[in-house]
Amino acid sequence: MTTSISPTKAGLPPAPPVDAARRGFTEIIAPYAYITPFFVIFAVFGLIPLLFTFYVALFDWNPIGEHVFVGLDNFSGLLGDTRFWNAARNTVSIWLLSTVPQLLIALVLAHMLNHVRLRLAVFFRMTMLVPYITSVAATAIVFAQMFDRDYGLLNWLLSLMGFEHIDFNQSVMGSHVLIAVMVTWRWFGYTALLYLASLQAVPRAIYEAAAVDGAGGVRQFLHISLPALRPVIVFTIVTSTIGGLQIFTEPLLINRGTPNICGPIRQCQTLTLFLFEQGFTQFRFGYAAAIGVALFVMVVALAGLNYFLSTRIRPVKG
Amino acid sequence: MKFRNVSAVVLTVTAALGMAACSGSSSETSSGASAGSSFEFWSFTGIDAKGSAAEYKAKRPDVEIKLTEVGNAQETAQALTTALAGGKVPDLVLIQGDDLPKFVQQPQNFVDLRTLGADKIKGDYLDWVISQPTAKDGSIIGIPTDVGGMAIAYRADLFKKAGLPTDREEVAKLWPTWDAFIETGKKYTAATGKAFVDNAATSVYSQVVNQGEEKYYDPAGNLVYEQSPQVKAAFDQALKAVAAGITAKQSTFTEGWSAAMKKGDFAVIAAPVWMLGSIRDNAPDTKGEWDIATIPGGSGNWGGSFLAIPKGAKNPKAAWEYIAATQSPQGQLDHFAQARSLPATPSVYKDPKLTSAKDEFFSGASIGTIYTDSLLGLKPFLIGPDSTTIGTEFTNALTNVEQGKGDPAKAWDAAVTNIKAAIGG
């Protein structure tokens, strides 16, 4: 297979025997030395905190006081805690409301951006990233103002058309939609670019042949673009699942009258926000760590499910 | 053989990284220790810590203050918690009264200020204020910087349009009780079609509950929030205000609240002394249209902050010198003149500098007198480690009735259920 030998290597005279040992040694350690920084940093900021979280979850852990071992009490408490299930329900609801539209919008946009006759293609592709590079906090504050009950732009437009004002923040569905809109706005461009990159690898000739055969834009999209995108779609579903389960900044900032719980009846408190509330306003680090472990289990389970589905899908391709 | 070499290199690289990290932190430590009169100060926003630090530096040019405004009061307490757990602490930190009990319960994290001379000056402060930073073992972990006397801020121009009196003495006579306050609100709303007060949770419940002699704990430290007549009375009073339809349904410190204040969509805010700065900052165009009147019930306290020195402080002596100089009765009086924070030292309450202070933003109201009067004859209650959590659940239940679709008849029970879930009681 690898028959080609680089000219420089081929042209080298045989190395003197004295240097052979040293060069062999250097060549062996070099790759390990190159990758070491990553593993050291991963251990310090990833693995060790993760393992430590499992440890803390077994304690009634006051960060500035005593640490009392309580075994699995935090976990049994969590299973009976309606606030936990409420947060889990909110998280899944917000994730679905944001991921599904986001991926659909991105698919259609990517197909449009891939069009041969698109003018100013680079401009449109670049602007897609603007929401992604905007600070989440700024996004949250601006959207919260736009959706405000009394003074928001959206409700002003609604009242011009003769409708009643909608209080997005105080209702369960309203607050979920508001957060989902922010998440979708932030991520659709990024996802669309991922799809676009994948689509550009598809030879133009296939589209041209399809056009010659009389296939319109929709058929081209369904029968060429979509199958070509399958692996990257699976990838974006996995990443948006992991991201969606960890939504934090938006619910933290939209209901600032009730900090850390996103509304008086916790209508949009997500799991990460519940974790933050327990850890940093109640100082119950053990309980917060148990929430973290539960979240970890959920993410691993969903990622595993996605992986399973993706390996099922691949053989069917073509 | 080869494998051992590899692992040796990996170890070396790791050690090098580790040493780099260590040398970085150690050099910082030595530089901090060498500067004998410098100290690190964590404060929160909105209380003009920069002003206090600058004043102090003018008197003590040899001192260097590394001031950090961490965030709001709660964020500062969170950062302090993390710092105490991690071991890298500031020399001096400002803690809000509501966050204080959690720290007083773990006094081993702080320098007992009696070792630096707090015993000599503790008589300068209101006794019920200095009792808050005093731990069970008798150690004093904080020195009061201010207190939160209570009053009502109202828009005199809007009162005039609604046919209500505008003079602050007459306005105070409109509401000797909270029931009378709600009746006044009904008159205002009927005359103008607009809301009277910003919300029920903060401007009614949190005021009434802070006017009693017992709140969520009895003097022995037992939880009594369910039985306390003051708490139930405050809760019912807030529900009455909601039912009367006089609230603007704007939660304090939200965007909507700021916008409504600017537009004059409510005419009244319950204003503990620290609220005055927020009104001034949020609605600068309403200068001269506001005035301040006595709160229904006459007296009450909400808030106040404390300066503490964490145990691991590198320079506790410089931090204590700062406390002693700025928090003396004279120091607090000077700071009142500059930043409108109410002294916790009763010896200056009759000082002309305080009694003659008038605030032009609030139509020249004598804020010093109005607010210190609200502190006289006050019998304060015990604030416990879960006071903030309990209060939050009560106000959330009220907000849900006011802004959500909560059933007022079930609100109290819902709040109690949530409190039990939150504090495990």
TrEMBL record, chain A:
Similarity comment: family membership: Belongs to the binding-protein-dependent transport system permease family.
Transmembrane segments: 32-58, 92-110, 122-147, 177-197, 228-248, 285-309
Family annotation (SUPFAM superfamilies): MetI-like
Keyword S-adenosyl-L-methionine among UniProt keywords: no
Domain ABC transmembrane type-1: 88-306
Main location: membrane
Compartments reported by the entry: Cell membrane
Gene3D superfamilies: MetI-like (1.10.3720.10)
UniProt keyword annotations, A-Z: Cell membrane, Membrane, Transmembrane, Transmembrane helix, Transport
This protein's record includes keyword Transport: yes
Gene Ontology, cellular component aspect: plasma membrane
Protein name: Sugar ABC transporter permease
Family annotation (PANTHER family): ABC TRANSPORTER PERMEASE PROTEIN, INNER MEMBRANE ABC TRANSPORTER PERMEASE PROTEIN YCJO
GO terms under biological process: transmembrane transport
Name of a matching Pfam family: BPD_transp_1
Bilayer topology annotation: Multi-pass membrane protein
Superkingdom of this protein's organism: Bacteria
Taxonomic path: Bacteria, Bacillati, Actinomycetota, Actinomycetes, Streptosporangiales
Originating species: Microbispora bryophytorum
UniProtKB/TrEMBL annotation, chain B:
Record keywords: Signal
Coiled coil: none
A Pfam match: SBP_bac_8
Keyword Signal: yes
Keyword Membrane set for record: no
InterPro entries xref list: Bact_solute-bd_prot1, SBP
Family matches, as Gene3D superfamilies: Periplasmic binding protein-like II (3.40.190.10)
Cleavable signal peptide: 1-20
PANTHER family, alphabetized: ARABINOSE-BINDING PROTEIN-RELATED, SUGAR BINDING SECRETED PROTEIN
Protein name, entry field: ABC transporter substrate-binding protein
Taxonomic source organism: Microbispora bryophytorum
Gene name as annotated: cebE
